[in-house]
């Protein structure tokens, strides 16, 4: 992506300010897998308690997760963490990271997890298309143009 101006309000930078940290991506990975409770999330990610607590709070504050109270019989009330629409919209990003890792970082045996379409069982593939439906092969086929919200230095 080549632009001839410095963008002060870059969407990539703003997104990374929220999700651009290992533990945040691992929390989101687990949320997409259906993990909702703090203890389960900690067990699955291996995140230190304080780190996980901070990441969950940030994701709630940013509107990617919402708290849902629950109570086990004989226990105090606790919160589950559920993805919001804003959080679910990050799914293609996580899949893209996973597929890049599968391609370049997998063991000789191959990827550790395969994503399939629940209805037919076919492997999930991310596609890059323009609004008219043409497949875009990569960055050399993209032209960045100034958007309505552009702010330059």
Question: Could you characterize the architecture of this molecule?
Answer:
- With 153 residues, the protein is mostly helical.
- The protein is 39% helix and 8% strand.
- The chain is built from six helices and two strands, in the order H-H-H-H-E-E-H-H.
- A two-stranded antiparallel ribbon has the order 1-2.
- It starts with 10 loop residues before the first helix and ends in a 48-residue tail after the last helix.
Characteristic terms for this protein:
mainly alpha, 2 strands, 6 helices, 153 residues, two-stranded antiparallel ribbon, single chain, globular
The largest sheet is: 2 strands, antiparallel
End-to-end distance: 18 Å
The quaternary state of the protein chains shown equals single chain
- Helical content stands at 25-40%
N-to-C SSE series?
A: HHHHEEHH
* Protein structure class: mainly alpha
Query: What's the Cα radius of gyration?
Result: 19 Å
| Record field, number of beta strands | 2
